[in-house]
């Protein structure tokens, strides 16, 4: 995989983050359980194991730092990502996965 990322700090207390993951398998993507139990040489969804394109992911994030008393720093942020699945994750009919996404909030305290 390659994972280019970018961090922009428009203010000393604010970070804006962006990244992308481009993933390829170097070998066939196979389900070891199906090989062992059924002798079926297929991927995890029953599809073509010779497809190596795992997909692309786009990630975004924001983080703010707020100084507090006693040399404490409050960190607040949010980040999220969207995966665009590749052919290695397709089923037996060639249909791709639904597009999964995730968003999380973050809070921390530095001392």
Describe the structure.
It is a single chain. The protein has 111 residues and is mostly beta strands. The protein is built from one helix and five strands. The protein has a five-stranded antiparallel beta sheet with strand order 1-2-3-4-5, with no helix packed on it. The protein starts with a strand and ends with a strand.
Which descriptors apply to this entry?
5 strands, 50% strand, single chain, 111 residues, 6% helix, five-stranded antiparallel β-sheet, elongated, mainly beta
Low-pLDDT parts are: none
Distance between the termini: 35 Å
Helix content bin = under 10%
Proportion of residues in extended strands: over 45%
Nearest-integer average pLDDT: 94
Number of helices: 1
- SS class: mainly beta
- Taken in chain order, the helices and strands follow as EEHEEE
What's the layout of helices and strands?
Elements: E1 5-11, E2 14-24, H1 32-38, E3 53-67, E4 73-85, E5 101-110
Antiparallel strand pairs: 1-2, 2-3, 3-4, 4-5
Task: Give the structure's gist in a few sentences.
This protein has 1 helix and 5 strands, in the order E-E-H-E-E-E. By secondary structure, it is mainly beta.
């Amino acid at each position: 995989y390659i994972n280019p990322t970018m961090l922009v700090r428009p203010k000393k207390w604010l970070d804006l983050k962006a990244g992308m993951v481009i993933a390829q398998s170097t070998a066939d993507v196979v389900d070891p359980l199906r090989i062992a139990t059924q002798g079926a040489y297929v991927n995890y969804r029953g599809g073509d194991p010779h497809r190596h394109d795992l997909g692309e992911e786009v990630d975004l994030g924001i983080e703010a730092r707020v100084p507090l008393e006693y040399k404490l720093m409050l960190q607040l942020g949010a980040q999220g990502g969207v995966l665009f699945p590749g052919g290695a994750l397709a089923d037996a009919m060639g249909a791709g996965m639904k597009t999964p996404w995730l968003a999380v909030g973050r809070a921390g305290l530095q001392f």
